[in-house]
Write a structure and sequence with these properties.
This protein is mainly alpha-helical and about 170 residues long. The protein contains six helices and three strands; from the N terminus they run αααβββααα.
Length: about 170
């Protein structure tokens, strides 16, 4: 009698476990959801990369005067900080491009992860450029908190306003 209850209990436990898996959990694991999110991150990546190109146009158009870098519009910054900032931005952009390439060659969850990483790296480069430019051009209202940046729409608006004022 005990063996029957044990086997029956085990069968009931397995059946209950299968039934108890909520539908949203299985829906979240759907490849369609991951492909949709991956494509969304790819669009955001491209949008942010366009802004990074604008920032790099400004950041690469500098003259060095001793230990100072002069940006367009006579904004100045210490050369050491400029060099570290450019190194950081270029590293982030290289990683973003590498992750994006990996995202294009995969599908499903892997595509989602690579595209998300590419977007996040590109966004980090944009925030770094924004903070440097805001400091150099003395526009503290455009500085972005790197720990908790604003939503992408707000970030893009801030970036576009900053670039238009430079």
């Amino acid at each position: 009698m005990r063996a029957k209850f044990g086997v029956l209990g085990l069968v009931l436990l397995v059946v209950a476990g299968l039934v108890a898996v909520p539908a949203p959990v299985s829906a979240v694991r759907s490849p369609v959801i991951f492909d949709t999110m991956a494509n969304l991150y790819a669009i955001w990546y491209e949008d942010v990369m366009q802004r990074n190109e604008k920032a790099l146009e400004i950041l690469k158009n500098v003259t060095v005067e001793g230990n100072t870098v002069v940006l367009p519009g006579n904004a100045t910054a210490p050369a050491k900080i400029y060099n570290l900032t450019m190194q950081s931005i270029e590293t982030e952009l290289e990683l973003a491009k590498m992750y994006r390439e990996l995202g294009q060659n995969t599908f499903g969850y892997a595509k989602y992860i690579w595209n998300r990483l590419a977007y996040l790296r590109a966004r980090t480069a944009m925030i770094t450029a924004m903070n440097f430019l805001a400091e150099a051009y003395d526009k503290p209202e455009y500085k972005v908190d790197t720990e908790c940046p604003p939503a992408l729409i707000k970030l893009k608006e801030m970036f576009d306003k900053l670039i238009s004022e430079i």
